Amino acid sequence: MSKENKKKKQAEKREKEIKEWKNRIHEYRHEAATLFNKQIVFLSSGGLILTIGFVKDIVEIDKAICCCLLVLTWLLLIASLFLNLISHKSTIKAMDLELNDLCVESDNQDVITSRYDRASIITFVTAIVMFIIFVSLNIL
Fold first, then answer.
1. How many CB atoms lie within 10 A of CB 129?
2. The pLDDT of residue 64 is above 90
């Protein structure tokens, strides 16, 4: 086997390894995104259920002040869930674009998906902060 053929085979092997590595990274990224979405749904829906179900055990609702914070908490948790659903649809759209070899459009859709994910996190964290403020104002 000539040196040129040997170099060519090594280059092909290296290219194949890089492609396999990129595919694995892509799979890990997809798994991480899926787990992230599940966690946000779990936390937001759990927060909604707990705040609706147990707020009366923490605060006397009929004597509570700033009830608008409690309502805002619920609205933000619901918004977080909706943003997560929209993010899921956006991910599907990005994958469809990728399957149709529209890589630039798929990458753009991934950016949009990331924005939905970020907004979902922000609304969830803001909801928790609002609930803590509500409880703090009404316990003291």
1. 13
2. no
Cα–Cα distances (Å) from 17 to 98, 103, 111, in that order, read: 21, 21, 27
SS3 of 29-50: the string is HHHHHHHHHHHHHHHHHHHHHH
**Predicted model pTM:** 0.76
Q: Are 23 and 103 in contact (CB under 8 A)?
A: no
Structure tokens at 127: 């909801």
Where do the structural domains in the chain lie, given as residue ranges?
A: 3-139
**Cβ atoms within 10 Å of 115's Cβ, excluding its own:** 13
d(CA 74, CA 132): 13
pLDDT in tens, 1-47: 577 777 788 888 888 888 888 778 777 777 887 788 888 888 899 98
